[in-house]
Amino acid sequence: KNQVEQSPQSLIILEGKNCTLQCNYTVSPFSNLRWYKQDTGRGPVSLTIMTFSENTKSNGRYTATLDADTKQSSLHITASQLSDSASYICVVSWGGGYNKLIFGAGTRLAVHP
Amino acid sequence: GAVVSQHPSRVICKSGTSVKIECRSLDFQATTMFWYRQFPKQSLMLMATSNEGSKATYEQGVEKDKFLINHASLTLSTLTVTSAHPEDSSFYICSARELGDTEAFFGQGTRLTVV
User: Fold this and answer.
1) Hey, of A34, A50, A98, which one would you mutate to test binding to chain B, going by the most B CBs within 10 A of its CB?
2) Contact B44 A42 (CB under 8 A)
3) Is the C-alpha dihedral spanning A104, A90, B90, B49 positive or negative?
4) Mind listing the pLDDT tens digit for each residue in B62-112?
5) Residues 66-95, chain A: which have Cβ within 8 Å of B?
6) What is the structure's pLDDT at A97?
7) What percent of chain B has pLDDT over 70?
8) Option in A32, A43, A104 nearest B109 (CB)
9) Would you say the C-alpha torsion A104, A47, B35, B79 has a positive or negative sign?
């Protein structure tokens, strides 16, 4: 069964600290993996997108890694800010068709001052 | 990134009435639009995929007569929730993609509350 599992479910960190969010998937065939940030009551905003051949991609303070062999990805946030408080969703594209997206449940991150 | 505008952002309606949600691509031609539904603390669930000028393709378990989708132009798709009931209360999100582009962009979402 195609699944995307994220951990932890929720996380609280202090402003300025780093954190790493995990994503494991069993989607096959794999096309690409995306990380989105979703603020409460808003639509998701793309952070990174990685294909099979890419193992790391950065977007400012966000760095995503991908290990296609172990089917694991991580999103590292450096020097967290209060505005980083949001849900972070891992999404895996299945078989190349865009409409075949498998969404993870997300990690709810709270950054406290 | 490209901009997708969704309207309204919040709507409250009475049970039995219909509600229309609009999704517009502001700076590109959206050949394909997707409609999602999201319950609190849950993942986005794809409801339907629509290509401009064609009938929408609904996911299993989604009632096409209840969730009417129209994609009559390259910049606008609408989702109409007909005869809404309290269990239809949810967060509805659209995304739009341009022909040949693998990326798609999400709207801001619409919080529907049926009372």
Assistant:
1) A98
2) no
3) negative
4) 999 999 999 888 899 999 999 999 999 999 999 998 877 667 889 999 999
5) 89
6) 58
7) 97
8) A43
9) positive
